Amino acid sequence: MLFKRKKELTKLEKLKNFIHPKKGLMRAYKYLLKRLFRLKGDIHSVALGAAFGLSIAITPLFGLQLILTVVFDFIFQANLTASMLFTIVGNPLTFPFIWFADYKLGNIFLSNDTIDSASFSNIIIEIKNAFSNSNWEVMGNYITSILYPMLLGGIIIAILSGIITYKFVFKSLTEYKEMKLKKIKKRMSK
Questions:
Q1: Which residue of 88, 90, 144, 178 pairs with 57 in a disulfide if CB–CB is 3.0 to 4.6 A?
Q2: What is the pTM of this model?
Q3: Is 47 exposed, middle or buried (0-12, 13-18, 19+ CB in 10 A)?
Q4: DSSP notation for 87-110
């Protein structure tokens, strides 16, 4: 093979490299940024797609996020690729922090008593167990006490993060495209 390794990696080395790449996570981050800057389409569409992707990733609607992203992108003619790139923010490593922030903010607005992060984690595990055992009564009790504050907090955070993301991406893309245009004009004048 043309690009084959001289020494094949073991399964443990492959797993280690998957979790923490040798080149570092910064390389993946830079790659995603380059992908964002090179997306086709107008700046508004890309910035809107990025805003929708991040906003929906922050909501506690696990499992519906990609579907909602596609629906919003279709309705508002946003860039789907940008949405998918920014939906990566919601992943198994960040969900517990996002959901806890959603819950805390929702309880502040509902003036409810809040629980600490350890109790919140236990409740999430109990909901998961109740769902897998089809214990709808237990799930119903938790849904009213957990899901409503999470939805409210998630919507508030999603709106704020969407506005910030839109403005940041729009400004960054505008500056990038202007810089690229200047380079092309400079090259053409030579």
A1: 90
A2: 0.74
A3: buried
A4: HTTSSTTTHHHHHHHHHHHHHHHH
Cα 77–Cα 83–Cα 86 angle in degrees, nearest 5: 155
Structure tokens at 62: 């696990």
DSSP per-residue letters across 60-81: S-TTTHHHHHHHHHHHHT--HH
pLDDT exceeding 90 applies to what percent of the chain? 31
Residue that the structure tokens 């080395």 belong to? 13
pLDDT tens-digit map of 118-174: 676 777 777 777 777 777 777 777 777 788 888 999 999 999 999 999 999 999 999
The per-residue pLDDT for range 64-84, each reduced to its tens digit, is: 888 999 999 999 999 998 998
Distance of alpha carbon 34 from alpha carbon 21, whole angstroms = 19
Q: How far is CA 47 from CA 17, 83, 148, in A?
A: 32, 9, 29
Alpha-carbon gap, residue 70 to 73, rounded angstroms: 5
Structure tokens at 122: 């236990």
In angstroms, how far apart are the furthest CA atoms of the chain? Answer: 75
Task: Judge contact between 84 and 54, C-beta under 8 A.
Answer: no
- The amino acid at residue 136 is W
